[in-house]
Amino acid sequence: MLKLDEVHTYYGNSHILQGLSFEVPQGKCVALLGRNGAGKTTTIHSIAGLTPPRKGTITYRGKPVSGLPSYKIARLGIGLVPQGRRIFPSLTIRENLTVPAKDSRQKDKGHKSWDLESVYALFPVLREREHNMGTQLSGGQQQMLAIGRALMTNPQFILMDEPSEGLAPVMIEQVGDIIKKLKETGLSILLVEQNFYLACDAADEVLVMNKGQIVWKGTPGELLANEDIQHQYLGV
Ligand SMILES: Nc1ncnc2c1ncn2[C@@H]1O[C@H](COP(=O)(O)OP(=O)(O)O)[C@@H](O)[C@H]1O
Ligand SMILES: [Mg+2]
């Protein structure tokens, strides 16, 4: 579904992603773990076209996407749930959901097609509060809104950057349940996390990243059993 091959990304002269290669198979959730500064967000931004790689290729459903502007990548069906949620504070919940959906919506056979009704059905609290401003929501509700907003573009693939950041434990568990539900609809997911337990709960495969490279990959079960990797790269 998504494949990175020897991707190198820079900020000016800083060489951040140093030959990154991995794949996300169709219908799977792959978690990308690593300490602060490992290059996780840069990976997401490289895929979404926000910080295009200087070298290497990114292919999505067999077609190269590296080098395309970010709006075109979004239209191909790659949705982004950004780190820090980035909801529009001066818009209502309903507006947050409907404004970005314009133009970028596309339908695809075999995938669930999202609209306001189906997003509200997944997150009933957003319907209850649809006329509230984005800022009047709790952290967990803001995260649901950020996910709902990405769904409104009808992605087949979703990039999630630290959805559990700043949330209470009970909310983090809910985020795990949401990710599993999304997978059941056929979505493929790249989940960036610092929360080791959420990643192991929600993902089919885990990648550990350090200094812009993948240093380990395996199943959640293998990572849970590997205390060396947990200590060395994840600070568990
Ligand atoms: N806009 C930027 N300009 C320069 N350096 C940056 C920028 N954003 C991130 N970095 C650097 O890139 C590295 C990787 O950052 P990032 O991808 O945000 O890591 P993570 O998401 O894993 O915490 C860090 O050393 C960070 O300081
Ligand atoms: Mg980050």
TrEMBL record:
<dbReference type="Pfam" id="PF00005">
    <property type="entry name" value="ABC_tran"/>
</dbReference>
<dbReference type="GO" id="GO:0015658">
    <property type="term" value="F:branched-chain amino acid transmembrane transporter activity"/>
</dbReference>
<dbReference type="GO" id="GO:0015807">
    <property type="term" value="P:L-amino acid transport"/>
</dbReference>
<dbReference type="InterPro" id="IPR017871">
    <property type="entry name" value="ABC_transporter-like_CS"/>
</dbReference>
<keyword id="KW-0547">Nucleotide-binding</keyword>
<dbReference type="InterPro" id="IPR027417">
    <property type="entry name" value="P-loop_NTPase"/>
</dbReference>
<dbReference type="GO" id="GO:0005524">
    <property type="term" value="F:ATP binding"/>
</dbReference>
<dbReference type="InterPro" id="IPR003593">
    <property type="entry name" value="AAA+_ATPase"/>
</dbReference>
<feature type="domain" description="ABC transporter">
    <location>
        <begin position="2"/>
        <end position="236"/>
    </location>
</feature>
<keyword id="KW-0029">Amino-acid transport</keyword>
<dbReference type="GO" id="GO:0016887">
    <property type="term" value="F:ATP hydrolysis activity"/>
</dbReference>
<comment type="similarity">
    <text>Belongs to the ABC transporter superfamily.</text>
</comment>
<dbReference type="InterPro" id="IPR003439">
    <property type="entry name" value="ABC_transporter-like_ATP-bd"/>
</dbReference>
<dbReference type="InterPro" id="IPR052156">
    <property type="entry name" value="BCAA_Transport_ATP-bd_LivF"/>
</dbReference>
<keyword id="KW-0813">Transport</keyword>
<protein>
    <submittedName>
        <fullName>Urea ABC transporter ATP-binding protein</fullName>
    </submittedName>
</protein>
<keyword id="KW-0067">ATP-binding</keyword>
